[in-house]
């Protein structure tokens, strides 16, 4: 029999969840029933509250992983004469651009090195040179490297030049404080299994109501039509168009309650920051250096440079740590050999201390 939790997930999601979040999935729900749809409406309202959006904003839930919601936003937002500028410095910026390219959308990509922040001056120059750009998209926390991108200057530029601003806040929303109104984010995208600490099954979009309404009939995808999904939820008080992940939805409501019990986003952010501080400090004491400078590191996940030792292998490190009760992530940086360790989810400073003890015990290089 597999134990309930053979290891702690130190990943950017799916991540380790509380027993009570998992327990919330131990019953079945009817997708047409008003009791279930009431849960959906509560979640939608709570998400808007967390974003500080007020009555100008609404939320839409969408089946699938967070990438499904990114694609839904692009299908819904982009018209044939729209042009999207993607500001990219990692794999998830590239993914946004790839989705737009495969849609046949008009696209420009402004690429920065994986270890560098996007340059607002370069963004503004691009907006000046290509006035046909109508939308600007970027990633908040680029988990390729653990980079916390400074989106505020880019959002300010989008407002200045009257562009629609799309923020992929997949790995940050609920764990890093932000105000969706200042500067304005027109569409913010995240997922159930990230900082709110639910389980996989759906993503969600926080949208400016006026901007969303302007997108009616844009989508050439039936299942990823965000406006249609939103209108169905609005009209039918929480009803999804197609079969919804009922167990995941109930678990997410429990996760939202536990976020409140912890003290809200600010308190969760402080815990994640402490996890990150202990991890980086402890790994550096063991001779393992972070890929990014401290000013760019997020409290979500950290990329570490592989030790320059001939006998080091990530696979060996992974398997040894797994045997100690910890699962980490392989690297995704193209320019350097790295591995990654997440510090979000139902993970606490004592867990990080135990991980560091395990790394010291198994050190083989």
SSE order, as H and E? EHHEHEHEHEEEHEEEHHHHEHEEEH
The order of strands across the largest sheet is 2-10-9-8-5-3-4
Summed over residues and divided by their number, the pLDDT gives a mean of 97
**Which percent bin holds the helix content?**
40-55%
How far apart lie the N and C ends? 34 Å
Q: What is Rg?
A: 21 Å
| Low-pLDDT regions | none
Oligomeric status of the shown chains?
Answer: single chain
- Category by helix and strand content: alpha/beta
CATH class of the largest domain: Alpha Beta
Give the topology, please.
Layout: E1 8-9, H1 19-23, H2 34-51, E2 57-63, H3 66-77, E3 83-88, H4 91-103, E4 106-111, H5 120-129, E5 135-139, E6 141-142, E7 147-148, H6 151-160, E8 164-168, E9 187-191, E10 202-208, H7 209-213, H8 226-235, H9 246-262, H10 264-285, E11 301-305, H11 314-323, E12 326-327, E13 329-330, E14 338-342, H12 349-362
Helix pairs in contact: 2-9, 3-4, 9-10, 10-12
Structure description:
A hairpin with a 7-residue loop joins strand 13 (329-330) and strand 14. The radius of gyration is 21 Å and the shape is globular. Helix 2 crosses helix 9 (246-262), helix 9 crosses helix 10 and helix 10 runs parallel beside helix 12. The two termini are 34 Å apart. It has a seven-stranded mixed sheet, with helices on both faces. It has a three-stranded antiparallel sheet with strand order 11-14-13, with no helix packed on it. It has a two-stranded parallel sheet with strand order 1-12. The protein contains twelve helices and 14 strands. The protein folds into two domains: 8-13 and 264-362, Aspartate Aminotransferase, domain 1, CATH 3.90.1150; 25-260, 3-Layer(aba) Sandwich (Aspartate Aminotransferase, domain 2), CATH 3.40.640. The relative contact order is 0.18. With 365 residues, it is α/β, with parallel strands linked by helices. The mean pLDDT is 97.
């Amino acid at each position: 029999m597999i134990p309930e939790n053979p290891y702690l997930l130190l990943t950017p999601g799916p991540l380790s969840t509380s027993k009570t979040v998992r327990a919330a999935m131990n019953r079945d729900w009817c997708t047409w029933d008003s009791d279930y749809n009431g849960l959906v409406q509560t979640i939608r309202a709570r998400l808007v509250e967390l974003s500080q959006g007020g009555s100008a904003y609404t939320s839409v839930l969408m089946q699938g992983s967070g990438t499904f919601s990114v694609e839904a936003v692009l299908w819904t937002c982009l018209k044939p004469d729209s042009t999207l500028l993607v500001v990219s410095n990692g794999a998830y910026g590239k993914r946004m651009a790839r989705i737009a390219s495969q849609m046949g959308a008009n696209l420009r990509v402004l690429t920065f090195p994986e270890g560098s922040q996007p340059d607002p001056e370069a963004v503004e120059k691009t907006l000046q040179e290509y006035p046909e750009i109508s939308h600007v998209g970027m990633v908040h926390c680029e988990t390729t490297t653990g980079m916390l991108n400074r989106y505020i200057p880019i959002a300010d530029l989008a407002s200045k030049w009257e562009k629609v601003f799309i923020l992929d806040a997949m790995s940050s929303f609920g764990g890093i404080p932000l105000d969706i109104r200042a500067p304005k984010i027109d569409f913010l995208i995240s997922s159930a299994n990230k900082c709110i600490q639910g389980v996989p099954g759906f993503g969600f979009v926080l949208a400016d109501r006026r901007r969303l309404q302007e997108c009616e009939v844009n989508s050439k995808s039936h299942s990823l039509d965000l406006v249609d999904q939103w209108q169905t939820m609005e009209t039918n008080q929480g009803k999804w168009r197609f079969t919804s992940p009922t167990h995941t939805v109930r678990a997410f409501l429990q996760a939202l309650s536990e976020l409140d019990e912890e003290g809200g986003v600010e308190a969760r952010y402080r815990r994640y920051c402490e996890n990150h501080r202990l991890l980086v400090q402890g790994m550096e004491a063991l001779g393992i250096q972070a890929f990014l400078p401290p000013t760019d590191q997020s409290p979500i996940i950290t990329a570490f440079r592989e030790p320059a030792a001939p006998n080091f292998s990530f696979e060996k490190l992974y398997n040894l740590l797994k045997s100690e009760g910890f699962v980490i992530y392989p690297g995704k940086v193209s320019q350097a050999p790295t591995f990654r360790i997440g510090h979000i989810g139902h993970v606490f400073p004592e867990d990080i201390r135990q991980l560091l003890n395990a790394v010291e015990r198994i050190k083989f290089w």
